[in-house]
Amino acid sequence: MASERVLVTGATGFVGAASRARWWRRAIRCARWCGRPATAANIDGLDVEPVLGSLEDSQSLAAALTGMDALFHVAADYRLWVRDAQAMVRANVEGTRAIMETALAAGIRRIVYTSSVATLGQYGDGRDADETTPVSYADMVGPYKQSKYRAERRGAADGEGRRACRR
């Protein structure tokens, strides 16, 4: 695994920065995907190769995945309020679909997708929820939850799509 090259999208964001130590301790040679260079301070001092691009730019996706063995897709547009909800949908739904399709076309052997706790269902009686707890699109309040739910289900707004990680 030490020679495995992994593209980590969102490595400079909240979840990516919190997770990065685990990846680097395992001696995985990582390239980090960063749509916003201003957040690069989260990984300063780590031996990673910077890869800049956009989930909305197919050429940058293909270039970023060139030579990679695995993809850890952690990137997301997370904002509590957004003027244009479609911008969040483009990043979280269409961008996730695009990077997954590009990775598959590139022959990437392993893909790990990190979604959000926001997509989990809840029981009304206080029981712990997990990824098997029933939930529907109607339960998702706001563009972030809706977009992450749709991304898990390959863009389905009706909740009938399969979770991307279970195919």
Your description of this structure?
By secondary structure, the chain is an alpha/beta fold. The chain contains 4 helices and 5 strands; from the N terminus they run βαββαβαβα. The chain has a 5-stranded parallel beta sheet with strand order 3-2-1-4-5, with helices on both faces. Helix 2 (58-65) packs across helix 3 (85-105) and helix 3 (85-105) runs parallel beside helix 4 (143-152).
Give descriptors for this structure:
globular; 4 helices; Rossmann fold; five-stranded parallel sheet; 167 residues; alpha/beta
Range of helix content: 25-40%
- Chain-averaged pLDDT: 79
How many helices? Answer: 4
Fold-level CATH name? Rossmann fold
String of helices and strands:
EHEEHEHEH
Number of domains: 1
Q: Which blocks of ≥5 consecutive residues have pLDDT under 50?
A: 158-167
Alpha carbon gyration radius: 16 Å
Number of strands: 5
> What is the CATH architecture annotation?
3-Layer(aba) Sandwich
Strand numbers in spatial order across the main sheet: 3-2-1-4-5
Beta-strand share of residues:
5-15%
End-to-end Cα distance: 25 Å
Fourth-level CATH superfamily:
NAD(P)-binding Rossmann-like Domain
What is the C-level CATH assignment? Alpha Beta
Biggest pleated sheet: 5 strands, parallel
SSE class: alpha/beta
Q: Give the overall shape.
A: globular
Question: Short description, anyone?
Answer:
Helices cover 31% and strands 14% of the residues. It has 167 residues and is an alpha/beta fold.
Produce the secondary structure layout:
Layout: E1 5-9, H1 14-25, E2 29-34, E3 49-52, H2 58-65, E4 70-73, H3 85-105, E5 110-113, H4 143-152
Parallel strand pairs: 1-2, 1-4, 2-3, 4-5
